[in-house]
């Protein structure tokens, strides 16, 4: 993918990626879903901020998920919350195809997806103060110290999230890697535009909207505690 040219008012250039493209095997159903449903649900990297009202055909609360994996969580919310519009970004094409197949089978129309760098799309393709919620579930923790710089949650990203959220908009995160949870807390508590919704300034109970995925269940079997964080834009 060609990087979008940096604009004077953006907080950072997207040079160090927080993800690795792992295509994996795509089933025939996933491939058909991508081929047949992309014109209806898919969004290519825009050259300018999107008109989200025109994109969804209405003005409704908007949720943006970064890295939806196989789409279980996003599918559950799309179907359960038809009054909201959801925009998911994922580079794993089999996961995108699976989500499109399931959402179309449910007859839902309140979803748009992109298969690209979510941070670049958020920065360049989403208008400021346009989102009611940004969701980040189990991002790659980049365990090795020399790779920590690749972690998605960094001060520049926190500032970007503040720009894109509406006042009182929610930044919702989860991780099963304790060192990354502590890193998230340090970064997000230090961002003046965010307010930690935890009464203790640390973690919050698991939100009712957060479906327990197979990934999380596997982590629990391995003894991994899950940490939920919730911040609101001031």
Automatic annotation (TrEMBL):
Enzymatic reactions: guanosine(46) in tRNA + S-adenosyl-L-methionine = N(7)-methylguanosine(46) in tRNA + S-adenosyl-L-homocysteine
Entry protein name: tRNA (guanine-N(7)-)-methyltransferase
A GO molecular-function descriptor: tRNA (guanine(46)-N7)-methyltransferase activity
Pfam short name (any one): Methyltransf_4
Organism: Solimonas marina
Enzyme nomenclature, EC number: 2.1.1.33
Gene: trmB
InterPro entries: SAM-dependent_MTases_sf (IPR029063), tRNA_(Gua-N-7)_MeTrfase_Trmb (IPR003358), tRNA_methyltr_TrmB_bact (IPR055361)
Pathway(s): tRNA modification; N(7)-methylguanine-tRNA biosynthesis
């Amino acid at each position: 993918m060609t990087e979008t040219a940096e604009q004077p008012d953006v907080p950072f250039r997207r040079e160090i990626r927080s993800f690795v493209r792992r295509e994996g095997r795509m089933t025939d159903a996933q491939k058909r879903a991508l081929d047949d449903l992309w014109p209806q649900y898919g969004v290519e990297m825009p050259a300018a901020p999107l008109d989200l009202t025109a994109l969804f055909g209405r003005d409704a609360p908007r949720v943006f998920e970064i890295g939806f994996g196989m789409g279980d969580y996003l599918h559950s919310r799309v179907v359960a919350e038809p009054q909201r519009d959801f925009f998911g970004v994922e580079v794993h094409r089999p996961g995108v195809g699976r989500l499109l197949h399931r959402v179309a089978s449910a007859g839902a129309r309140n979803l748009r997806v992109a298969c690209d760098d979510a941070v670049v799309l958020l920065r360049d393709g989403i208008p400021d103060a346009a989102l009611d919620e940004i969701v980040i579930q189990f991002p790659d923790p980049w365990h090795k110290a020399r790779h920590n710089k690749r972690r998605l949650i960094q001060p520049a990203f926190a500032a970007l999230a503040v720009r894109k959220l509406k006042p009182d908009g929610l930044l919702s995160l989860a991780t099963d890697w304790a060192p990354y949870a502590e890193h998230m807390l340090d970064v997000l508590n230090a961002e003046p535009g965010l307010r930690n919704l935890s009464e203790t300034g640390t973690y919050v109970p698991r939100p009712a909207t957060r479906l327990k995925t197979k990934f999380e269940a596997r982590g629990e079997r391995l003894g991994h505690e899950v940490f939920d964080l919730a911040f609101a834009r001031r």
